[in-house]
């Protein structure tokens, strides 16, 4: 049987987009896929919209998690991982959508690769709040883990929405998020720590069907208003560590 994929959808106040997002995940052509929705203390109608969806999609797994850290999806993702049964896990933004063949293409790459893939990323395409395309493919490339580490010291070279990992990395405690220190920069911090442990994030260069939605209420803009430059802190920390 094909390897199983878990699609986690953490949600905080995404009532305008959550139905389209979940339907795109639930109607994947890949035949061994589960979708887990976790509400993160939304104050809008997101949870009610999803509850109505479960009547049509009874296989949709739903739960909730407290919203402890601003601009972070750690709490809902970790709650979802208590339900997850997939060999691999990907996190779909509640305001984003994926094409029907996204999971099928992704898992074909993982299953056909000559060596085991522990983590992978692929390009994404931007859409606006109406779902209209607004950007070309956004992607990153590096030849090996040392090249990856060098590039990471100047900017994050992972398209986080497409980041997919082997669930075993989490169950063994290798992959962890640290919102207490880095809030919305937890992914950047995670990729540094994975690289430090020799875990390569395979950079697939073909777009697989991930549509990333840009809109004025997304957490990205809130993080930009913070007084602490978490990116610079991480770059300085790992630059010094790897230098020594």
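^ structure tokens above, recovered residues below v
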């Amino acid at each position: 049987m094909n390897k199983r994929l878990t699609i986690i959808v953490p949600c905080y106040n995404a009532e305008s987009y959550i139905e389209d997002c979940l339907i795109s995940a639930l109607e994947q052509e890949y035949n061994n896929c589960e979708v887990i929705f976790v509400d993160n203390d939304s104050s809008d109608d997101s949870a009610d919209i999803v509850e109505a969806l479960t009547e049509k999609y009874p296989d949709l797994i739903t739960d909730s998690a407290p919203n402890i850290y601003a601009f972070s999806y750690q709490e809902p993702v970790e709650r979802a991982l208590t339900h997850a049964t997939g060999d691999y896990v990907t996190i779909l933004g509640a305001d984003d959508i994926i094409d029907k063949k996204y999971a099928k293409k992704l898992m074909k790459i993982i299953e056909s690769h000559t060596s085991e893939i522990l983590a992978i990323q692929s390009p994404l395409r931007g859409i606006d709040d109406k779902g209209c395309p607004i950007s070309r493919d956004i992607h990153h490339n590096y030849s090996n883990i040392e090249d990856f580490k060098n590039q990471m010291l100047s900017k994050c070279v992972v398209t986080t929405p497409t980041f997919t990992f082997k669930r075993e990395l989490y169950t063994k405690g290798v992959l962890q998020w640290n919102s207490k220190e880095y809030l919305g920069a937890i992914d950047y911090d995670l990729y540094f720590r994975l690289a430090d442990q020799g875990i390569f994030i395979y950079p697939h260069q073909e777009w697989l069907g991930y549509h990333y939605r840009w809109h004025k209420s997304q957490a990205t803009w809130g993080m930009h208003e913070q007084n602490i430059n978490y990116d610079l802190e991480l770059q300085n920390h790992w630059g010094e560590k790897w230098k020594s």
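The chain has a mean pLDDT of 94.
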